[in-house]
Design a protein that fits this description.
Layout (H helix, E strand, L loop, with lengths): L1 E4 L2 E5 L3 E7 L5 E8 L56 E4 L9 E9 L17 E9 L5 E9 L4 E9 L6 E13 L4 E9 L2 E10 L2 E6 L9 E8 L10 E6 L5 E7 L5 E7 L6 E3 L4 E3 L3 E6 L2 H17 L12 E3 L1 H4 L5 H14 L3 E4 L27 H11 L3 E6 L3 E3 L3 H5 L18 E3 L5 H16 L3 E6 L21 H19 L4 E4 L9 H4 L4 E3 L6 H12 L7 E6 L12 H9 L2 E5 L7 H23 L1 E4 L8 E7 L5 E8 L10 E2 L9 E5 L4 E3 L20 H9 L1 E3 L4 E5 H6 L2 E2 L21 E8 L1
Parallel strand pairs: 21-22, 21-30, 22-23, 23-26, 26-27, 27-28, 28-29, 29-30
Antiparallel strand pairs: 1-2, 2-3, 3-4, 5-10, 6-7, 7-8, 8-9, 9-19, 9-20, 10-17, 10-18, 11-12, 11-14, 13-16, 14-15, 15-20, 16-17, 24-25, 31-32, 32-33, 33-40, 34-39, 35-38, 35-40, 36-37
Helix pairs in contact: 6-7, 9-10, 10-11
The protein binds (2R,3S,4R,5S)-2-(hydroxymethyl)piperidine-3,4,5-triol.
The site of (2R,3S,4R,5S)-2-(hydroxymethyl)piperidine-3,4,5-triol has 11 residues, from loops.
Amino acid sequence: MIKTGNKIFILYTLHTTYAFRIMDTGCAEHLYYGRRVNITPDENGISALTEKHTFAPGNTVTYDKDSGAFSMEDVCLELSTTGKGDMREPAVMLISSDGSRTGDFVYKSFETGSDISINDSGMPESRLCDEQLVITYEDKNSGASLQVCYKVFEDEDVITRSVKIINDTDSDIIIDKLMSLQIDFDRPGFKISSFTGGWAREMNREDTVLNAGKFVVESRTGTSSNRANPFFMMSDADTNEDAGDVYGFNLIYSGNHYESISVSSFGKTRVLSGINPEGFSWTLHPSDTFVSPEAVMTFSHRGYNNMSHHMHAFVRKHIVRKEWQRRKRPILLNSWEAAYFDINESKLLKLASKAAEAGIELFVMDDGWFGERDNDAKSLGDWTENKKKLPGGLKGLTDKVKALGLKMGIWVEPEMVNTDSSLYKKHPEWCLAIPGKVHSEGRNQRMLDLSRPEVVNFIIEEMTRVFSSADISYVKWDMNRVVSDVYSSVLPPEKQGEVMHRYVLGLYKCMKTLTERFPEILFEGCASGGNRFDLGILSYFPQIWGSDNTDALSRAVIQSGYSYGYPLECVGAHVSGSPNHQTLRRTPLESRFAVASFGSLGYECNLCDMSKEEADAIKSQIELYKKWRNVFQDGIFYRGRSFADGNINEWTMVSRDRKAAVGMVLQDLVKPNTQYLKYNAKGLLSDVNYRFTNRELKYDIRDFGDLVNTVSPVHLKQDSIALDVIAKLVKMDGEEEDITVSGDVLMHCGVKLKQAFSGTGYNEQVRFFPDFSARMYFMNAI
Ligand code: DGJ
């Protein structure tokens, strides 16, 4: 709901309120964003929220001679610029035709409605908002118009904001900086939680309390990056998962982004988010427009979990394209870690047939199937099957995979080219490169220049040809290089600052056209894992490979990180071999499954090399997942304890009707002589009784080492054939949990689990729980 008064604007969602007004100068004052309060949109109604100024502070500049009472430096603004007294970092910086950088945006008009589109740029945007407010300002200096569009999503408690510049002058204007989001808070001291990392260690939450100075989250990789995701939170110092005030922010953008949180010398906190201004500039010719990415914001006074629920609901309903909303995601087997580049039809079919036996639904042929692609130095760009590896081509393989009862998926990396490829030989000028200069290297490949329409068309037509050459149900769209040597040979020198944003627009054109041409294909984004995990990609591709790191312990941290801003069915998560290929850590198969099942589940290991026990275990995991898939993929996710607090990571996923739930506890290292562990559920119905169970697990006696001799009538040597034979015949029964308990008790007291093994005895009443163990618990309302 949007209420307007005389130059007063109040935006309401179910639990939040956002308010601003236009001051006498024509500049906009931000009044409030937070927990829902009712504000009457008139002078009296906002009187408590406006800043009171009688004399401007010393050593400041006042807006003009008639506004001597205050300086723009010490007021919360809705739209900031530079040169009129505000000494803080500005949201907008334009260079006028006379070279001046001063901006002077004053209110002109407003419009409300439910489908006013300011987006004429091909940028992805959220869909189906309840109401919109567009405020138009005029820059008295450059003459440009600026529109701020607010979209209100009531049920999801989300408000979005994007900005458009319209050059209605007859000279060029340069956009030096244009932030999508600005919020000025009237206090310092927020705890900022950002999500940083690198390859194979994405999305680590880092908390920093900011009382002065500036904190920046940004990417320069050409992507939203694994270095710093555009999602971040700001909360009170004592906010936790289930209580306290927290703001969540994100940006629907897949390129270089910039978020800054700074505290002014007057103790006010300014938050900005948008395209990274570093290396960016855009020339707006007369009558041109430029639209910023859409920024997303939410607030909760009920802690991080509730803030995440707002974001999850928003992504599910307003970002993910309609064909894949609430649609069952198939369980897949990906060939990468099983075979890397060493693939051929017979090997792939062996894997696929094992996958079919296990109950897997989709077979994905990863890298290595085209051109001369035997390693990462060759053939990107040459999207024709290697006939030695696939004698029947993509179609031949696909038909055979389908005959096994599986759907077929393939891997592509359309934005890239190896210099050792036919495409590069034909079109070296299609790459981002500075003519005549030595190029930096990254995975032996170059980025195609997606700012060129003919390159975008080539990608679209090549991919259309590939995706229609066989019955392809799934595409993994990879992107494995960070940008260097940014230069487009078709843009003039003064427009080189436009290249990276034009690249992103070109990418969106590819994604939009291809998802429209192939709406039923499930696309999974990937960029060396999570180097481009953002709402821009999710607008077209409903899931993204979360990390090349498939180690269960690492993944628990990475997936927890994603879960703050993104629903977990958007995160591709696979069970891989052990020792893990990225960490060499050995983890139980059950732990790998437990962690992966909270994302979009897949397997990425050599099923042909599995023992019968492992194959049986995988089969039973898949049966179980299919029964619980709806809860996992459509449920409401809660974080409990995390490795940041100790050695347990605890998650719960609750069905939408809250009558079924799955919980997981994952342990880091064993603490000796600690038998006690409790699992606390979240999100259940208090006054409903649930049956709480675990699943039947059997353990290999070899996992008990030499201790077998404490019960064996004959002495058994470690690693002996005799022990191997007995291990095949005799299994240790795992502990059973089966109680009926109210939702209230499950949530507020928790369940004290069967005691863990701690060196003093073992039977089926004891939880076998060595390093890196996990348990899944199932709750069904009675
Ligand atoms: C990087 C991806 O993240 C991997 O999963 C795999 O697809 C390789 N690229 C293939 O080259």
